[in-house]
Amino acid sequence: MGGLTYIDFLAKFGVGGAHPGGIPLTKNMLTGENITKNTAILDAGCGTGQTTAYLSQQYNANVYGLELNPIMLEKAKTRFETLQLPIQLFQGSIEDIPFEDQTFDIILSESVLAFVNKPTALREFYRVLKSGGRLIANEMTINTKLSPLEEAEIKKFYGLDSLLLEEDWKRILETTGFQNIELQSQPQTMSQGNPAQEFNFSKNFEPELFDILNQHGNIVIKYHDILSYRTIFCTKL
Ligand SMILES: C[S@@+](CC[C@H](N)C(=O)[O-])C[C@H]1O[C@@H](n2cnc3c(N)ncnc32)[C@H](O)[C@@H]1O
């Protein structure tokens, strides 16, 4: 792969809605939340900003995007400018969030925690949420334990430090201090893809990125009954 990662593939192909279930699931996840124009929402690891733009358009809320990858950031910036949306976009890591304590009412993070040090990022989410604030996430989760070789294959491909079962997510959310923790599985599998995926290709990209796309397809098919995801809802009381 010449050092190219799955995230490089997503960034150069400009994959919007780069999470299982895509924007239809995002909309669904938000329906039970109390969001007004005064709500401060962080889209943590916003990628090209499909969800971030939706949050601004749908709720007219105070929307912030945080993203580490410069190509993703550029694509998100262009999207927000084109749509003339008042979204504040920041470069930074969810492991060291460049905001004061107690800033946000809601943090939405779709398929980002899986790629980082999870306890560190969850502590940061907790810190920057207001009391009563909500964390809503959509994260890779394995349905059953894998053999060490299988686990190593998935971790290596996605660049993960760990692969969590549902009970592992619950435990680290609890340890961080979150309450009212709810994890839900969804009918759509990872191998069914995302019904509303967009692409915004970079002008130049390495042909090897097609290999990453193929390998991704092979992994989700090979592990279709184990490699899954959960929607996660919890509160900082
Ligand atoms: C699978 S994509 C999901 C993007 C977006 N949330 C979406 O659903 O389309 C993962 C994103 O997390 C970003 N990311 C990875 N590590 C990060 C970190 N430490 N801080 C912020 N963003 C990060 C990647 O650059 C990428 O945009």
TrEMBL record:
Presence of keyword Transit peptide: no
Ranges where the Methyltransferase type domain occurs: 42-136
Gene3D superfamilies linked to this entry: Vaccinia Virus protein VP39
GO molecular function: S-adenosylmethionine-dependent methyltransferase activity
Pathways per UniProt: Lipid metabolism; Phospholipid metabolism
E.C. code: 2.1.-.-
Alphabetical GO biological process terms: methylation
Origin superkingdom: Bacteria
Pfam families per UniProt: Methyltransf_11
UniProtKB keywords: Methyltransferase, Transferase
Entry-linked PANTHER family: PHOSPHOETHANOLAMINE METHYLTRANSFERASE (PTHR44307), PHOSPHOETHANOLAMINE METHYLTRANSFERASE ISOFORM X1 (PTHR44307:SF2)
Protein name per UniProt: Class I SAM-dependent methyltransferase
Taxonomic source organism: Neobacillus novalis
